[in-house]
Amino acid sequence: MTESLVRILDGNTFVVSDRRGDIEASATDPSGLFAWDTRFLSRWVLTVDGQRLTALSTDDLNYFEARFFLVPGTGTVYVNATLTVIRQRAVGDGFRESITLLNHEQKPVDVTVRIDVACDFADLFEVKDALPKQGAFDTRVADGTLVMAYDRDTFHRTTTISATPPGRVDERGLEFDVHIEPHDSWAVELSVTPALVHPGAPTFLRAAGAGGDSPRGRLEELDAWVASAPRLVTDSDQLAATYRRSLVDLAALRFSPAIAGTRSLPAAGLPWFMTMFGRDSIFTSLQALPFAPELAATTLRVLGDWQGSRVDDFRDEDPGRILHEMRYGELTAFQERPHSPYYGSADSTPLWLVLLDEYEQWTGDSDLVREFEPEARAALRWIDTYADLQGNGYISYRRRNEETGLENQCWKDSWDSIAYRDGRLPGFPRATCELQGYAYDAKVRAARLARKFWDDPGYADELERQAADLKARFDRDFWVEEGEYYALALDADGTQVDALSSNIGHLLWSGIVDDAKAPTIAAHLLGPSLFSGWGIRTLADDQARYNPIGYHVGTVWPFDNSFIAWGLRRYGFKAEAARVADGILDAAAFFEGRLPEAFGGYERSLTKYPVQYPTACSPQAWSTGAPLLLLRTMLGLETIDNHLIVDPGVPVQLGRIELLDIPGRWGKIDAFGRGLVDVDHPR
Amino acid sequence: MSTTTEFFEQLGRKGHEALLQRVSASIRFEITEDGHTVGRVLTIDHGDLRLSANDGPADATLSCSGTELDDLVTGRTSAMSSLLRGGLAVQGDPELVVLAQRLFSQAPLAGSTPHPPTAEKRSP
Known about the structure:
The complex is a heterodimer. Chain A contains 19 helices and 30 strands. By secondary structure, chain A is an alpha+beta fold. In chain A, strand 22 (about 480) and strand 23 form a beta hairpin. The model of chain A has no long low-confidence stretch (mean pLDDT about 90). By secondary structure, chain B is an alpha+beta fold. Chain B is built from five helices and five strands.
């Protein structure tokens, strides 16, 4: 993604254009109008008298609305700077665009305004992989409307373009003869509407966005969303700005995944991942729980409804497994990709159980826990059976769909992310350490649910026995004696994959770390090889594959750090957690409050600013959620029985923090913290 | 026996589906085969199933061909793929479509890997 692109979105629909508002997509270029993982518009180019325009300024008014100020002509000399062109575009069931021309001359002008149009109906996967189309294209001009269609068997998609007032329409666009009096203006309203045109589809696959179709309705909805979150009062302007940015971006990333009605859950991120992901939606819901608990309810319900029910190698599906990713494009429709949904994730199932318990602890919504008892039990069975590929009592993964399935089914899913200290790559199955932590936490939490809500104390006892056994075995099998940390994974032989990685921080979050070893783990996390000064690197800088701009082998991930900070708090390392929070929040200021997916693992004293990872997605849901979780960890917010406990550990630099009206089973409560923890970063 | 007849007969005999314990709703199936449409309403009451031939309204209506139904029941296609392709049409509460998949065969898909060795051993 380059910063010269303008992106606006609403739910599953988004428009990516250049700074003039034009779209000129190539086979592999991600610009266009996208809805339901399909590009419904690949060309949208405005000309005046055959000339392209130059952008004077571009405003992202809101996440769903943008405005472009333009003049005719390109290059350094404007051919006609006495004419201004304003394009204003809002997403909602496709998009609406008004084009206004202002004549600054003292005489009338006559110009031809034209919009060139094309649709390639590419599936997002085709855009990523440059695949050819198999169906037929058709273009129809009728009643001043341009309809572009794509058909393949029973699969039909159309894009309809119309204008008010109407213009001349041909198969390649719309044209207007414009006469403007001196100091007067002319305007046209264009509408671009994508459609799935078979019966039954429109009701099921609404391009649902919150707040209805009008920009005003959506703006009011956005204001209401921000207002309903706890209010942050702080001495730090940076923190206040980051908090607001996070809330607004989280609003933008909300997505109604077809079966949830008007309820929404967090999609993973723009532009490739405006869809439901098990892992991302769960992590983001956990981060946002003290701020927007309704996201967690939808995530639990939708992922629970789609829980796997049969063994299917194509989708890597098993009974009880929680999905990895859902897609809605042509390749999914014809089962040329397995995302209907695809289940190849080894962590979404235990994490779903963790969220179920954490959600109940915050909200007191015991109905949901009772309703989804069968799904929860099926998820626990999956951990013990289908996930235990080696019969050694650990979750491990190996894809069964060898063509289009995912090789690495943990959050570090790039090809070289799981490696030995010396750089060798292990075979499959792989049992990464954090998966065992999640399984441990899931069992401990499910035991509470079984005892309290499922009326099954025997099952609760059994789950607690299993958890204790897992913790003891894990400590024995994963502990790397020589380095005094937990191995990244066990390989197919049960041998330790002995790299030192940020994954050991997730182990603290899950509670699987032996109390006596926790100080050593914390020391590694904040030590010079893992901690950059901005945050904890995905891989320690003395490991063979370390690369400060390697996707999962050296970069710093804000989401990763937020969960590690939570883990440090869990084991009582208040100052260490504050140090991580301070570094990540400092970094956020360099990105105007919008943390990217990842940034470089360079030493802070070396670069003085965090270097953005070249192709990181932004905004990305779990990066957007990171400042929220860091606020929680700095204030030390935890639930005990029906109460919210506040135990602040705020960095000195941040001064006073007040989080007002935190929603939960207690009604609404305020939390206060004063900056007393000296984190001592090099400046 | 046609797929449609077989599906409805099995559904009629089933009586209860544990995976639909939390569901109380009605689903109308409209299956078109050889030019004519067979309609049945399945009433679910906390997992208890009752099939009837009434024409009354339902919380969700699923319409498809007999061939498409066969693909759905055996798992050769998923409900989401079928919907996106235009093979399956839905009206009413979309959540019920997702849950209706639990009425289809739970058997491993033909050609898929058998359960891992631990699947039976460790299952509680």
